[in-house]
Design a protein that fits this description.
The protein is an alpha+beta fold. The chain is built from four helices and eight strands; from the N terminus they run E-H-E-E-E-H-E-E-E-H-H-E. The strands form two sheets. Strands 1, 2, 3, 4, 5 and 8 form a six-stranded antiparallel beta sheet that branches. Helix 3 runs antiparallel to helix 4. The radius of gyration is 15 Å and the shape is globular.
Length: about 160
């Protein structure tokens, strides 16, 4: 089994879509570790605020199969890929870590994800997996978060639908 860390985000009915994503992930993978959902401004475009959270799961599903399955989950929840890369979305699920793999692959697949530079990705991951070691930097997520420029900043926590 491989430890997988996912970053989830939504800025269109986000309380609903993040809850739906966690439910689908729990149904498929069983026990999950789920971070709080944080409200953050859109990055790269003008749009409604995002809610972002993170999920830790264990799986034997190969990385490319998992990535395809997650894209299908996004699509099933109304993800529109026809617009610009940085745009409003119902659901975005990215594999940030897949065990200790380092990948530069097809279809923008990069592990660890370069979005780790953003607090909205790193903070939720550090919440649920502080001791997880980044295979590139050799630091754990708690150390990486402690070095982040937004460390110590207060983030707005938002309950997901039905919580």
């Amino acid at each position: 089994m491989t430890t997988v860390l996912l970053s989830l985000g939504s800025n269109l009915n986000p309380r609903h879509y993040l809850k739906a994503a966690v439910d689908v992930l729990r149904e498929r993978f069983g026990t999950l570790r789920v971070s709080p959902a944080y409200r953050t401004p859109a990055v790269g475009f003008d749009g409604p605020d995002f809610l972002n959270n993170a999920v830790l799961l264990e799986t034997d599903m190969p990385l490319l199969a998992l990535d395809e399955w997650l894209h299908a989950v996004e699509d099933a929840h109304g993800r529109d890929r026809s617009g610009p890369r940085f745009s409003d979305r119902t659901l975005d699920i990215d594999v940030v870590y897949y065990g200790d793999l380092v990948v530069e692959g097809p279809k923008h697949l990069r592990i660890p994800r370069p979005e780790l530079k953003h607090a909205f990705v790193l903070k939720p991951l550090a919440d649920i997996a502080p001791e997880f070691i980044d295979p590139v930097r050799g630091l754990n997520l708690a150390q990486m978060w402690a070095e982040h420029p937004q460390f110590g900043q207060v983030f707005d926590v938002v309950a997901l639908e039905g919580e």
